[in-house]
Amino acid sequence: MHTQITAPVVVIVIGAGALHATWNAIAKFTGDRLAVFALIGVASTLGGGLVLAVTGLPERAAVGFAATSAAIHIAYDLALMRSYRLGAFNQVYPIARGTSPLVVAFGAYFLAGEHLGAIPLAGVAILGAGLASLAFSSGRLTRAELPAVGAAVLTGLTIAGYTIVDGLGVRRSGDPFAYAGLLFFLMGPVFPVIAAWRRPGLSWLTGRGAARGLLAGALSLLAYGIVLWAQTRAPLAEVAAIRETSVVFAALIGMKLFSESFGRRRVAAAMLVAAGILLITA
Prior knowledge:
282 residues, mainly alpha
């Protein structure tokens, strides 16, 4: 059983959340999302390979978890691409990210034996109310919003899936950095291969957005590497919840970069989400 999350770990994981919101904003801002996810995959493959060259492979018991997580990450990327194609950044991002701690809290209870107390459970309920409020932030959920909200919820479910798998796997790895390296190396090549097949000539690798995509990839590796490290030092539900303070950074980015109006309803919903996250870690 892992102990309560400590203040230094909280600060580090919040930083990971800021990095995560930033690379997601880059993915949303870039018009050619297949290219940007392919470039993220290049960064993942190279970064993972370099880490493995230093650390070697993790313990054998963790390899299957890394492979399973890599497959779930591919599903996550596909769902995320669809979410950003259909919806506003400051609506679909909070729904996707906020769904995850709810599912992780229950998954960790049954799969990792991590039991939440009364206050964290209240946080789960408040977080759920905040997510429902985000879905209805325009006053009522219109038919036009349903595909975006559905894609965001599906994205959240994949996030929860790989979070639980990685939490179990990294604790069996013997070295969280070796586990991270293997995970990144396994999941990295998929989108570069798809892009090379659909975009002959590798124009996506040398175009104007190449540096932006590689930056997103580097931020993604750093952000999730921090999370994997934190999962070896605190309960999965608490790490997942603290990480999703990224919704606050995403809201600020959405207003600044995309000129997306947050509105009073979304502000209130975001406050509920933040309050729920804080209670989950109490």
